[in-house]
């Protein structure tokens, strides 16, 4: 019972629960006593704490027969002063290094944005992590002949744009890994030249990441003179990895949808991607 | 009741256009080789008509009309309506290799 009562626990700031021997008559006091006051030492404080708690019972004096060296203030011991100075200096050095590293990390995180942009411009990766994406892959890709996918086409026009815009084929059957060509037609029935700009959408969404356009007519201003009608081709392919994706097992229909908006003169729209 | 349904509809519309961090939204990607210049003078219209006729005859199967699409793109390249590229890079490598074989056979 008495063995569980350690003098150093009094000095600790930790007020955790500790199991004392429940049969000890002082067990409540012993549990609570370290939490009452911290840092002070000496036998007298125990009694005053317990007295405050109202559970005063004279503790066993045999406890205090354990000898301890008398306490002194830190730094007054002449034998360890040099060592403590040394420790303090090393602590300061380490702290300086750690602070410098933290500031360096913060600066690096700010510098990373323009640096990455520079890197993308020089290597031409354009924000995508796939290296050598475009032409080498097209050259070497092998069509997956047993997976036929129907691609349907949809054409939309914003309400303020008066073009007649429609696809020239309702659907086309392709296989992954094979490049395909499709046509849209646009006519400007008005008497003024109109500039349009388009964006596209692919449904289902997950299949959209496999839908690669080699060349099309989107995201750039297209100007149609009065009463002019043009053919707008889309040259695309579906990535061969489409056939290996387990999520795409049930996907047999992909819909490519283009929407034309009217572009104002001199308006610079942001192109998706990294430029 | 009607108002509740209407608000749900507009909410869905707003969801599709606004930035919702929960679900992924479609990210349009720019085309690999950029945009086709418009064929204002219809210089390659005949090739396009041949291609469309081929599609209609073959029930819109792309694999059977690849020669016509290759011809259309070659027309564009010759008329400066498309950047010059070797046809292998556009996925027509098998058509090019198949051609000399067909010539030697026939």
Give structural notes.
The complex is a heterodimer of chains A (275) and B (106). Chain A has 275 residues and is α+β, with helices and mostly antiparallel strands. In chain A, strands 3-1-9-5-7 form a five-stranded mixed sheet. Chain A contains six helices and nine strands, in the order αααααβββββαββββ. Chain A is 28% helix and 23% strand. Chain A has a domain at 135-262: Sandwich (Ctag/Cox11 (Pfam 04442)), CATH 2.60.370. The mean pLDDT of chain A is 78. The longest helix of chain A is centred in the middle third of the chain and has 43 residues, at 81-123. In chain A, 22% of the residues are buried. Chain B is mostly helical. Chain B has a domain at 44-97. Chain B is 52% helix and 0% strand. Chain B is built from four helices and no strands. Chain B has helices at residues 2-17, 45-57, 66-78, 93-105. Chain B is globular and about 40 Å long. At the A-B interface, α5, β3, β4, β5 and β6 of A face α2 and α3 of B.
Indicate the CATH class of the domain at 135-262 in chain A: Mainly Beta
| Helix/strand class of chain B | mainly alpha
Number of helices of chain A: 6
* Largest sheet report of chain B: none
What fraction, in percent, of the residue positions of chain A are helical?
25-40%
* Number of beta-strand segments of chain B: 0
What gyration radius of chain B follows from the Cα positions, in whole Å?
Answer: 22 Å
Which shape of chain B, going by the Cα principal axes?
Answer: globular
- Main beta sheet of chain A, described? 5 strands, mixed
Which architecture of the domain at 135-262 in chain A does the CATH hierarchy give at level 2? Answer: Sandwich
Helix content of chain B: 40-55%
What's the mean pLDDT score of chain B? 73
Helix and strand pattern of chain A: HHHHHEEEEEHEEEE
* Number of strand elements of chain A: 9
> Kindly, what is the distance between the CA atoms of the first and last residues of chain A, rounded to a whole number of angstroms?
75 Å
User: How confident overall, as mean pLDDT of chain A?
Assistant: 78
Seen as an oligomer or otherwise, the chain set is heterodimer
